[in-house]
Amino acid sequence: MSPKPNLLLRYMSTADLPYVMEIDRLSFEIPWSEKSYRYEMNESEQSFMVVLEWYQERTVTRLQKLLHIQPFAERRVVGYGGMWFISGEAHISSIAVHPRGRGRGWGEILLAGMVRRGLMLSAEEVALEVRISNHRAQNLYRKYEFKTVEIKPRYYRNNNEDAFDMRMNVLDAAVCSRFEERYSSLFAAFQLSDHFSDFSPPRNTPKP
Prior knowledge:
Blueprint: E1 6-11, H1 17-27, H2 34-42, E2 47-58, H3 62-66, E3 72-86, E4 89-97, H4 106-120, E5 125-131, H5 135-143, E6 147-152, E7 163-168, H6 173-189, E8 192-194
Parallel strand pairs: 1-8, 4-5
Antiparallel strand pairs: 1-2, 2-3, 3-4, 5-7, 6-7
Helix pairs in contact: 4-6
């Protein structure tokens, strides 16, 4: 039986860009440019870029042990997300999972990691936009107690579709308590490590 794969939430690095941009291209009609990703990672003090890495240990055979060949691991980026923290608001700008990995709960891990990063930055609110036709994403956001506050007309440039502006009130202690329960449950459901939500990015973190 193959070992169960691990999942790691961590900050996006330059080495991740080919994989991130592939997922972006497969997920959105108007993908970001490489220049935009580099700016968000390395220059913007308001940006927090995350990837979800699939990780599986590989054992060595008896012959490989005799030859002193070390165990190795297979790794791949299976999803990514982006968040801006500006004036007390954590704004989730993007979430995407590779098409072959959808339906496994990996998008929920990315969402929860970014919400928790916002909480660690003492955000007063977590916000995002979602297409009005994207019912699956809306159901996930409502699970985490995001509520629709308004409709943004013709928000998406590719087809002028409207967007729901959805927000999570993290000043409500009960909402935060329920979020932490959901966040903790992800560690029970997956072999998950989080090196993102409670860690500073590889640059100076803006003060909350």
